[in-house]
Amino acid sequence: MEEEEECRVLSIQSHVVRGYVGNKAATFPLQVLGFEIDTVNSVQFSNHTGYDHWKGQVLNSNELHELYEGLKLNNVNHYDYVLTGYTRDKSFLAMVVDIVQELKQQNSNLVYVCDPVMGDKWSGEGCMYVPEDLFPVYKDNVVPVADIITPNQFEAELLTGRKIRSEKEAIEVMDMLHNMGPETVVITSSDLQAPSGNDYLIALGSQRRTTADGTIVTQRIRMESPKVDAVFVGTGDLFAAMLLAWTHKHPDNLKMACEKTVSAMQHVLQRTIKSAKAQAGEGNKPNSAQLELRMVQSKKDIENPEIIITATVL
Question: What family is reported (predicted)?
Fold first, then answer.
């Protein structure tokens, strides 16, 4: 087997001592899939904030800049991908944009994968869980430099100012997002009615590419995953990392990249819920510690996912 070209990812996300969110959810899968991943930890917490208690430190934008300067001085600030997720601070996010722009000047092929984490819907009501002053930064500065974005339905609606009530409207929203910059858009979850019924979650993807002769081609897909009855943390971070890997390995085939990503997700979640229920014991609701993703145990599924969810081309 000939050596693959080294592919290096700069991932700027949170770090937890215990459990799997942010960089802890992205690092292992990317390494298993053969990527070199350099991590900047935007926070260092004992555990994710869904637990009863958490403690730790937050990196500010000057400290982020300092770390980046260190890489630059050694001339090792060369990346193929940048990956970012949950951010709480406006100046930190602005600094991320500066770094991405500088890295893109060095490498015009750099791909920025951004999960624009702003909020979600609970029982139909949308709610932001980051400060509202981040929204204009995402809309005006982050999304325009991103190449792949993975918003949920609420975030996609927020960024475009449009509601999604049907698949047709979802496609229009994805087209609007393409027009803002990214050539790949995956709406990771939506409350659209799934053809297979209420026990399924719908995800939608769209990839807009320009062919050699200048024609613009758009591939759109829909995926239905069985709902898993539990609140997991870190799933979005894992999703974005695996989507980065699989779009790299299948650059012209969004369908295949998404099938591998969503199938691997499903393997991890099924393993996690099974194990959490066993730990909690009959009739008890698993707690945050028991619901931590079974990442290491899922190594084979991450490396070579058996396709259990297929995408429909729209």
Answer: Belongs to the pyridoxine kinase family.
